[in-house]
Design a protein that fits this description.
The chain is mainly β. The protein has one domain (2-160): Hypothetical Protein Pfu-838710-001. Helix content is 12%, strand content 48%. The protein has 3 helices and 12 strands. It has helices spanning 65-72, 131-136, 155-160; strands at residues 2-9, 21-31, 34-40, 43-49, 55-56, 58-63, 76-90, 93-94, 106-114, 122-127, 137-138, 143-146. Strands 1, 2, 3, 4, 5, 6, 7, 9, 10 and 12 form a 10-stranded antiparallel beta sheet that branches. Strands 8-11 form a two-stranded antiparallel sheet.
């Protein structure tokens, strides 16, 4: 089960270049249900995602490079490329009715900086271990709008966007 929230941001972290990152390319074979292929650095996956906006089933199957490029030719719509920075969020804050995480608890912000034709789009995603944690999460100050329930910001929607 994937449980995540998605946000636009006010500004990039000043020390962005100090964080590890991955180069991602993904394409969609289907968007309902979501069937996606992804190249993440030198690894390749076929992903199935069930219905839902914040929480949904997700299955990843490894592919080899030949299978990835064979399926890429069959993909519909736009191919999405982005750089994903992995930013630790130490001691995240939750509403008073939310979970009480252990001391030194850390979440990871996945900050996606999109390449053309979607640049200058930048989105932050945070994955959680429970719906309760996701629903009561208090985002850091540099996050702007919560777009978790806005389908326009889902990568599968971007793949269908007229350019």
């Amino acid at each position: 089960m994937e449980i995540e929230r998605k946000f636009t941001i006010k500004q990039l972290p000043e020390d962005l270049s100090s964080y590890p990152f991955r180069i991602i390319e993904q394409a969609y074979l289907n968007t309902n249900p979501v069937v996606r292929i992804r190249r993440e650095d030198t690894e390749f996956y076929l992903t199935y995602k069930g219905r839902g906006m914040m929480a949904r089933e997700e299955y990843n199957l490894p592919l080899n490079i030949e299978s990835y490029y064979h399926l890429r030719e069959k993909a519909d719509g736009n191919i999405i490329s982005k750089k994903r920075y992995l930013i630790p969020l130490k001691n995240p804050q939750f509403a008073s009715n939310g979970p009480k995480p252990p001391e030194d608890y850390t979440l990871t912000i996945e900050l996606d900086v999109f390449d053309e034709p979607f640049a200058p789009l930048i989105l932050a995603e945070v994955e959680f271990g429970s719906k309760e944690a996701a629903e009561t999460f208090l985002p850091p100050d540099w996050f702007l709008e919560d777009v978790t329930y806005n389908p326009e910001y889902h990568n599968s929607s971007l793949s269908k966007k007229e350019l």
